[in-house]
Structures are given as C-alpha cells and as structure tokens.
Write a structure and sequence with these properties.
The structure is a homodimer of 709-residue chains.
Chain A: H1 2-33, H2 49-58, E1 62-64, H3 70-87, E2 96-100, H4 109-114, E3 123-128, E4 132-137, H5 140-155, E5 166-167, E6 173-177, H6 208-218, E7 223-225, H7 238-251, E8 257-261, H8 266-269, H9 281-297, E9 303-306, H10 323-334, E10 339-343, H11 355-363, E11 374-379, E12 403-408, H12 424-431, H13 441-445, E13 449-453, H14 469-480, H15 486-497, H16 502-523, H17 554-558, E14 564-565, H18 582-589, H19 599-602, E15 605-606, H20 617-640, H21 648-680, H22 695-700
Parallel strand pairs in A: 1-2, 2-4, 6-7, 6-13, 7-8, 8-9, 9-10, 10-11, 11-12, 12-13
Antiparallel strand pairs in A: 3-4, 3-5, 14-15
Helix pairs in contact in A: 3-5, 9-10, 14-15, 15-16, 16-20, 20-21
C-alpha cells in the first residue's frame, strides 16, 4: 500500500505544479483554448460534487503489480490522470489494482479463469466496495484497455458496480486507415492537413502523436495504416522506415501497431527491377528483403494494406496474375510477422457489368486461395460509402477467406465535416445485417476485423467538427464490441464530450441517432445513391451524365428519365440481387415489400408508382426530401436550446455548422427536385415549396476549392 | 471610478468562472496544451511575485472613457485579460485610463499636444505613480496599440516609468501577405494548412481568426492580404465577398483591414469579358462595379495586391500596356477608398538581362506615372528572399513613387520551419541600408509601408516552430518602428514567449542574433545565392544546371567552374552595380574592399583569389561553411542548457528541430563542398573533414513530399 500512496503523493505534487502552469497560461489563453475540442472524449471533467464524493471513497490509489514499464505503466498513468481530472487528487484508500493474471493472488485467481481463452486485449474488472477495484488481464494492453474502460465508466457517471465484468474484443484488428499523403494532403480529408509530420520525422515527434495514440487506445483501436491506399512507393524507402520507427516506438506503449499502404509496383518504382510480377523470383526476393528491413526497425510492424488494380493503381493483374497471387506473395514476405490486407474495392474501366457487382465477381471465385495471413477488406456496401447502401454481397460469400469490414469515418459522401451525421446507425445496420449465409456481417468479420477511413486532421478538434469526433469514437467502440447499440455509444460519447446532464443527453442523443437518416433523406432518399457532384462529392450533381466512364456519372446510378427513376438490379436488370443469399434477395426483390430506404437501389420504377404510403413515388420522394430539410432545421433548433450545457466556444462552433447544414439541405433538396422535374415534367405536390432557383443556377455552381480531392 | 470598479468586478467573476473551466479541462489536458505555443507572445505569464506586488500597486482598474464599443472596448478587454494573467485579479486602485484626446481633461490636455500631427494609430502613455496611468490616442486603434504596448512593457518586466512616452508608427501600412490558396494550400507555407477556412465561411468563423487578429494588433500589424499573389479570380465572386465580409467584421475591432490579391485577368476569367485590357472601357467599368460591390459589403476594405506579368501571371503587358496603366486603372476603381499594391517582382522568360537587374529596368522608367493610391511593392533584395542579398536598387531610385518593402517571414530559402533563423538582423540590414540617394531604405518606404509574407499556418504554434514566431513578431515590431534593434526585439520576444530570467535571455538572445548568419554560412556563404534545390528550395542543389530557363538554375547564380566562382555584376559583367548610387556601387566594386558577405554576389573570382583574411578564396569558403556547421552545433548545445527555463514540451520541440538543423547544416556543407571540388579539383585545406558521402549521393536525394510547393 505504501507504494501506491507514494505514487499518489508524487502525482499530487505534479498536479500542484501543473495547476500553477494552468493558471499561468490558462488565464491568458483559456477562453480560446479550454474547450477547443482537442481533448476529445478524454476531457475527464470533474464529476458532480456528490457523485465525486462517493467515487473518491472507492477509487483510491492506483497499484500496479509488475515493473510498471511500457504499456502497463501507461495504463497506470492514464487512470491517475483521468481520476485526477474527475475526482481530484485527494481520494480514499481503497485501491485500484492493475495486475496481469500471472500476478494475481490466490484469492483473485478466479479472475484468471474468467479470461481463459479470451483473445489478446481482454480484461476483467472486479469492483468490491470494500476490497477495492481490480483490473486484470493476460497482457499489458488488456490492462490499458481496462484502465480506459474504468475511466469511461466513471466519466459516464454510471454506477460503479456495473463496471464489473469481463470484456473481450469482438475482432482482432481494429484499424484506422489514413488516406494521408506524405506531403500532408489528406484524400477525402475535411479536418485540415495530415496529422503526420513526415517532413520533420524522425527527429521531431509532434506531441500530438501521443495524444492520437491515447485517443485510439481509449476506444480499443490497435493499429493505424498511416498512408493513403493510393500509395507512394518511396514510403518504403529507408528514410521513411526511420520515420515509421519513431512513430512505432511512440505508439507501442499504447498498443497501436503501425501498418503501411504499399504500392504494388514498388519493386519497379524504387527497387530497380523491370517488373513487379508477383511470381517473379526477383520481385519476391525484393519484398522479402524489404520486409526484413522493416521488421529489423519495427519488430511489431503490423503489415501492409494494398489497393491493387483499382482506380489506376498497379496490381498483379498487370502481369496476368490474380489478386490471390499478389496478396500471397506479400504474405509470404511478411511471414508470421504481419498481415496483408487486400482491398476488394475494385471496378474496371472496361467492365460493362453493374459496378455494384464487380468486386463480388472478381473475388468470390478466389475464395480459399488466400494465405492465412491475408485478409480481404470489403467496404460496407457494394458501391462506395454512400449515405445508405445495402450490405456488401461478399460478406458471407467467402467462407474460406478472412474478410474485414471497411467503413468510412470521414464523411466523403455525407456533407464532409460541415453536416452533422452520426454514423453508428449506418455501421450497426451493416454489422447486424443477416447475410443469410450463416451469420451476420459482424459474425463474418469477427475472425478478422474492422477498418475505418480516419477523419483526423490538423484541426484542433481533430475531426473538422466537434460532432465528427463521435464517428471516430463510434468506430472504435463498435470494432471492439459490434453488439453495442448506437444509442449507448451516442450517450456515452455525448456525456464524455459535452455534458453528463440528463436534460442534455435526452435532447442530443435522439438528434444524433436520426442525423444520418436526415442526411440520407435530403441527399439520396429511397435508395438513391452517388448523386454528389463529381470529383469533390460535396453538393448535388444528379445532372452529371457526360463523363467518359459511365460509372463516374450520377446518371449511371439514378437512371432517371421521363418515365421513371432507379437502378433495376433485379432479374430484369443487372441482377445484382442474385449475389445475395436467396432469403435476402427475396426481401428486396419486390418493390411492394422492400424496405423503401433501399427501393431505388434495386428497382427502376415509374414516377407514379404507388409507394407503400399509397402516395405516388414522386410525391413520396418529395415528402422525404422535405422531411430531411425539416429535420435539419429541427437539429439547429434543438442545439440552440442546449447552450446551458456546453461551453460557448464549442456551442457556437456546432451552431455555425448547423447553419451551413440547414442552408445546404435546402440546396440539395431544391437542386434535386429542379432536376427531377426537368426530366419528369411533373408539378410539385400541392403545398410544396418550389425550388429557390432554377436548374441552371444549381448546375452553374462550382467549387474549385473543395477540400479532400 | 465606480464604472471601472464595476468592470473589474465583472471581470473577476468571469475569471472565477474561467478558472473552474481551466481546472476542469486543464487537469486532463494541460500537459499537452498548456505550452503548445498557441498563445504566442501573448502568454502573459505571472510576474515574479515581488515584481507583481509592485505592479499591482500602480496598475489598478481599467477605465475607458467613451462608449466602450468596438476597438476601444477591445483595448480595455485586452488590458484586463493581460494584467489578470500577469498580476491576478486583485490589484490596487490607481487606475489605467484609456482616453481619446477629445475626452481628455484640462489637466491632461498636454497629452493631446504630444499627438498633434501624429499619424493614425499613434498614442501616448503617461505614468504617474500617484495619479495612475493614462493611454491617450486620437483614434481607437491608437488606444488598442497603447494597451498592447503597456502589456508588452509589463510582460517584459521593465520599469514602469520607462513606458511613458509618445509612440508613432514608422509607416502607414504594416501588412501580412498570405500566400494562401482558397483550397487551404499555402505556397511556401511550412506551418500546415492555411489558417483561413474559406470552405466554412461565412457561417463558420474559426475562433482562431480572433486570436490571429489579436496577435497582429499586439505588434501593430494593420492589414492582411488574405490570399496568394498567384491569385484565383473566383475569390472576387459574390460568394467570396460574403466570406471576406465575415472576416472583416471579425477583425475590425482589432484594427486589421482586409486586402485581396486580385488576378489581373479577372474581367475575362469571371466577368464574361473578352479582354482584361486596362484601357478598355468595359474592363474599367467591370473593376469599378466590382470595387463598389466589395465596398458595399466591407466599407473599410484595404485594397488590392497584384502580381502582374510575373512568373506566368496575367498583366497589362499582355495588352501592350505598362505596369502603370494596369495599376492606375485599378486605383481609379478603388478611388479614395483603398490602395493598389503592385508588385515589382518581375523577370522575364525572354529577357537575357541579369535577373537581378530586371525589376529596376522595368519600373524605374515609370517613376512618377503611378496614381496617388498606388504603391509599388519591392522585395528586400533584387533576386528573391535569399539568406543574404544586397538591398534592392529600386529603393531610392523612384523618388516620385511610393515604394513598399516586401519581406518574407516564411523561410522559403532558409530551411523552412526546420532551421532556426531569426530574421530581424536581415531586415534591419536592409532598412538601415543607405541608398545613397537621400536616405535609408527605411526612409524611402516610410510614406508607404512594409509587407511580410506570412509564416502562419494551422500548426498549433502558428508558425511551424516556436522560434519562427519570433519572425512574425519581429516583422510587426519593425514595421511599426524600423529603428528598433534586432537585439531589443529578440530580448522582448524571448521574455514574452519563454522566460524573463536574465540567465535565459543572456544565452538565447545572442543565439537568435547570430542564427541567420549561421544559416547563410552553411548554405550560401560569401554572397552566393539561390543554390537551393529547384522547386522546393530546401536542400542544396548547386549542381542543377539544365532547366529550360537559365535563371531557374543554381548554376546561373554561382557561375562556378574550374577557374573560379561568383557572378560578375561589375562593369566587366552584367554591371548590375550601376543600378546603385555611385557611392554604394563604389563600396562593392572592389573585391578587395567589399564586405565579403557580398563578395560572390558581385564578383567572379578565381579559386585562389586572396580573401581579406589572406587565405585563398577556396580555403576561406570552406572555413565559412565549417563555421556555419559549428555554430549550428553550438545552438543545439546552448539550447540544451536552457531546459530549466522552458516548459518541457516546447523545450523538447525546439531541441528536436535543432537536431534536424545540425544534421542538415552538415548536409549543406558536405554537398556543396563535394560539388565545388568536382569543379575545381582542389583538395580540402589540411585538417578539414571530407564530405560524408560522394557527390552522386547528394545529387540522388529527392523530396517529393517537400512542403510549400
């Protein structure tokens, strides 16, 4: 016990020193800094005094068994830091013990049993009101996750006894994919520049890299692919390996492994070889040597992510080889040391097949031919991160291949960081989907993992807007536990980030939960998709029909004309439906029975087709646009009433974003209706507001400065 | 008096509330945030207790005469905020009075006399130990500057009586030039992305825009050109005028006027006209209407900056007109409302003349032909922001034209934000230079102003490194008072930014003062110039000789071969010397008499030419490279000893940058020597370290990810 107390005293002194520093700089700069969002969900704001008093009784000194180095030491430090913020330095004497199972006493041995067979990172928390709290794990990372779980529980103001249970990650790989280029540009990034300062590495390590690792570890993320899938080969060169090593060393105590996107043609681009043919012995030897070089610097390097033969990227098909040939060659080079993650996001310039069908057609025949350390990474839907897509038909269709779910945290197609859209409902919709082939998507990806295209950037709030932090948070929480509900995640995040007040949560959580549906309504209602203006993917561009590749055109997706609208993917059309299990396909085959949120994804229907409401399709469509606009207004109204619960700086920032969203929801609705009317010649239903401008106006808008290109 | 006390009480309550907020967020995040550099020189850290005690006695409540709105209110708020940080909330009762001259009492009327005829922004401070302190000015902005001057004085720990005097700006325009593109990229920016969030304006105003205005106002900067001189015409469109208006409204209370870089071809690009000929009536009408449109939104819009017929930009010469024709046409459109700033940075693809001579040749014949509200903006030297250049020969050569000095705060040619180089000595070298035509450069530009190409970006420390903040600071201070010494500025900045301890200042100030010379020594000693690798301008590239335009090649500038090195700009060569006044030219004409820091700028000399030291030129050159490297080492050593005075986060950040600089100083020296040796075949002087690698190695280095392109 003395040791723990000693720690507390030292921390006490540290806090006193810190306090002086805070006062010194805070008085001058606090108005600007204090609530700029940098602390994310790790603010650890003081608990309500009565709750804090009770918590202090049972959450006393932190005792770490073992030598306290590395990750376990990080775990202890995080608990100290978090509890100091929430409870202050003076706390009771019932200890919080962090212990690996090997260090448990005889009387605690039952905790080890709880963890028998549990995957890496699992932990158990026991909370005895008298004996104190124990966090036990079989590995140091489990202790770290346990520390953050305990903090989250306290920060969420939940009854302490409820924290006591066993926690197991739902999948082994929980990865952020950064589409960050080495020059600092972030493809589809809406939060400033890249957070990775390659230019100054390895000498200069931005302190932000530590805060990044903390944030990830706190929600269970255990790896980061640090560069864009449209990769530059030079990032495999020695000078970059030195930079990567500095990052890996900084992140190791937080359980974050470094992964790299690899350009398949690297042996040719930087290796001096004539070819990158995966069956060429010199190519194989080059990758072997490259892997050895990386692992000599970074023993726990995670592996390589590859976008091959997709959107102009090189790949094995350039040499008449298959995706499996390419992936397996790299897998052999990594050996047991790491993982090859091979993206299934492919569609061909020459292929006339419905784009929604192409990945399935290319990959499913390869089932069972990928090496053990290859994972095929599949986007949530068959097109490309639209506001709504049905789940990807590959899930469940490759029983002998590890499949990983790729989600997009950054909102490429959902209004960038300007529009509020909480994405947990989108992801749970996919995770919970029954593939009809023996399990849900969550069950299919459980042996592999989940990737999220990051929304981080140099903006002080990390994500471009305060509410976009919730999507990073939700991604991590769902990757750890795909059974969590969107509501629980929203509530947890909002309490940690803004306020624990019930009145606040009762208003903000429903707003978050409906927000993605709102965006889908004013952008792409009833299963429409990919109507964003070409290139930047921001505002509406349903009229774009003349780009050289058919699938670059919004017209390709909506197929609207005087007669009707929608993409026939039934047997009378592209028959993409047949890629799904029969039960699933049946549920979507009949336009009278289908969940109408998927209607026009699968069906081409006349404008007067009777919707399930009984209204003609056209009227129903207009009603949904209008509902989206009204909901955007309602969000702004709801938020305006929440100012008592949020600091002025963040409250104003969100309010200003919601003002943009209100304006742009109208823009989406008005431009879309003006365009549909130009095709169908129909009047708007009685009582409906006419578009503010004519179609020519909407078509004339250009945004050369749009971010994220 | 009651009113002032009331303010103090309200501020006291505000501080108490703030304190809670600081504690709440600070305990969790302070270690990362408290000293991240965001507060710049406005930290206002608490004074030493004894000094604070004394200051509290005489700096009591702040009393503002007048209605307290706008800029004057800002002035009061800033004093309150700054003194609260340095002295705390409890202070004595001797007041600080802010008063316009019209509100002075009979007894104070002598202060108004002090300001008779003083330019806008002037102020006077009177400090009576009994009656209190008065800041008087003829305009609100003067009160704001006075507030910041008082704070700076207190923060610099200087005796209060010394603050009492009259302060007049040395020139009317003190402008930042932002080379920021609307998409967020900053040309020659090394501090992240643009601080201007055009995408979300006008609805969303980043709070950083207020902190930016505060920082500028605190050093007397009174305008900002918010976009790159390589301008996009669409920034003159209505949607951008709305965005500009929001910025202008936010900055107005800080005395910052908005300026825009204008693309000369805008009438054609966005105006639907066939031409941009400045003598075409339709073109003139278009600019008139555009100016009216801007002024309707922003009544105090500053004006337009134009880069014309330079590096591919359109201009009046495209229509056979002169720079004066172009500038005067825009000047007429603005009328008395604003200023046209026309850049003299021109050189032609076709012109065979020494590039150093071209601006003079194009502009000097136009002297007297520019309208009254036109200012010609001239770079400090005749080439392009090199580590050292002689002053530009246009200064003094256009007595009937307003000339403005353009400096580059961002370190395009001095190691980006990686190398420490304090630039005040470079700028004072130019400002103090006697043109030989009736005044110094400072005197020549006094009727116009001074521009600095900003080094701001989205990095939390604003400038890419902590020490680069000093260059922003020095620019502002020198533009306000060009007679300030570099030493005074360095001392002031270091005390405000890091520590007031004499032991710290005694070490860091000399290090800052010599730092630019150090960089010049290891990059371009003895008057060499423009040897940076092409395009990015970062590392050494003296071997680049084969680019299509001669003046793009470092070889063009060094002219080295087996026989010798240097650019003959005497009568036997390009005779650029003749553009200077005879006395100036005479001082530089003789290589035996010239300040050797300009030697190879003006002279081509054999490698064995006896330098003023008596050593052969080659030996002298090597010695200067070596001295530069040794000085870079010494900076790192000096800084390592200053850790007791600086918070760990900023100390480490600077130390890590200095580690880069040490490595790269060697790179510069080694690569340069290897190249010179490849030409002259000479051995290194005895005892000299050989380059670490061979020339091929240095030539092989490429940096596709270099920032700022």
């Amino acid at each position: 016990m003395m040791r723990g107390r000693g720690v507390v005293n030292r921390i006490g002194a540290w806090l006193a020193a810190l306090l002086l520093g805070v006062l010194a700089s805070g008085l001058a700069g606090a108005a600007a800094q204090a609530e700029d969002g940098y602390d994310l969900w790790l603010r650890h704001a003081p608990l309500d005094p009565a709750r804090a008093e009770a918590a202090r009784e049972v959450l006393g000194p932190v005792e770490l068994r073992g030598d306290g180095s590395g990750t376990a030491g990080t775990a202890r430090g995080e608990i100290e830091r978090g509890l100091a913020g929430m409870l202050g330095a003076d706390r009771g004497n019932r200890s919080i013990t962090l212990a690996l199972t090997q260090d448990l006493t005889e009387g605690e041995r039952w905790l080890a049993a709880e963890l028998a067979g549990a995957p890496p990172g699992s932990f158990v928390i026991a909370a005895d009101p008298n004996a104190g709290t124990i966090v036990a794990a079989r590995d140091d990372t489990g202790l770290l996750y346990g520390a953050f779980a305990l903090l989250r529980h306290v920060a969420g103001d939940r009854p302490l006894p409820e924290v006591a249970r066993t926690y197991r990650p739902g999948m082994p790989l929980r990865l952020l994919n950064h589409w960050d280029n080495p020059d600092g540009h972030v493809e589809r990034g809406y939060a400033g520049r890249s957070i990775f300062d390659w230019w100054h590495l390895p000498e200069r390590l931005d302190p932000r890299m530590i805060d990044y690792a903390r944030a990830n570890a706190s929600i269970g993320i255990n790896g980061a692919v640090v560069n864009n899938v449209n990769a530059r080969a030079f990032m495999l060169e020695p000078r970059y390996i030195a930079k990567l090593k500095r990052l890996a060393d900084a992140w190791r105590p937080y359980g974050i492994r470094v992964y790299l996107s690899a350009r398949f043609s690297a042996p040719r681009d930087i290796g001096g070889l004539e070819t990158a043919d995966p069956l060429d012995p010199a190519v194989r030897a080059w990758w072997h040597a490259k892997a050895d070089e990386i692992y000599a610097a970074i023993p726990d390097f995670g592996g390589l992510l590859v976008k091959a033969n997709s959107e102009g990227q090189p790949g094995p098909q350039d040499y008449g080889r298959t995706h499996a040939d390419g992936a397996n060659m790299l897998a052999e080079a990594l050996g047991t040391r790491g993982t090859v993650i091979w993206r299934a996001f492919v569609y061909s310039a020459e292929d006339e097949t419905d784009r929604a069908k192409q990945a399935y057609e290319e990959f499913v025949p390869l089932d069972g031919r990928f090496a053990d350390n290859v994972i095929v990474q599949v986007k949530n839907g068959p097109i490309d991160f639209q506001p709504r897509e049905p789940f990807h038909p590959m899930f469940g269709a490759m029983p002998n291949t590890k499949l990983m779910l790729e989600t997009q945290i950054t909102k490429e197609y959902l209004g960038f960081a300007s529009h509020l859209a909480f994405l947990a409902p989108m992801w749970t919709e996919v995770l919970d989907a029954d593939t009809g082939r023996g399990g849900t998507v969550a069950e299919v990806v459980a042996p592999a993992g989940m990737a999220g295209v990051a929304n981080t950037g140099s903006d002080r709030n990390w994500s471009g807007s305060h509410f976009d932090q919730a999507n990073w948070y939700a991604f991590g929480r769902l990757a750890w536990d795909p059974s969590l509900s969107s509501e629980d995640i929203a509530r947890e995040w909002a309490a940690l980030t803004f306020s624990r007040e019930e009145a606040f949560l009762a208003a903000v959580v429903p707003m978050m939960l409906s927000s993605r549906e709102t965006v889908a309504r004013y952008m792409t209602p009833m299963g429409l998709a990919h109507l964003m203006d070409t290139g930047h993917h921001y505002g509406p561009g349903p009229w774009v029909c003349d780009l050289p590749r058919p699938e670059w055109n919004p017209c390709y997706y909506h197929r609207a004309d005087a007669g009707g609208i929608g993409f026939d993917r039934t047997a009378t059309g592209s028959n993409a439906l047949e890629q799904y299990a029969p039960g699933v396909a049946a549920a979507w085959a009949d336009p009278a029975e289908i969940d109408e949120r998927y209607l026009l994804w699968f069906h081409h229907l006349p404008w007067d087709y009777p919707a399930q409401s009984g209204r003609p399709l056209w009227d129903e469509l207009v009603a949904r646009y209008d509902r989206g606009v009204a909901e955007a207004d309602a969000m702004a109204q709801t938020w305006s009433e929440l100012s008592p619960y949020v600091d002025p700086q963040r409250h104003r920032a969100v309010a200003e974003s919601l003002a943009i969203q209100r304006r742009e929801a109208r823009w989406w609705r008005d431009a879309s209706l003006a365009y549909w009317q130009s095709l169908n010649g129909l009047d708007l239903p009685p009582g409906t507001r006419a578009p503010e401008h004519d179609l020519d106006y909407y078509r004339s808008l250009v945004f050369p400065e749009a971010p994220g290109r």
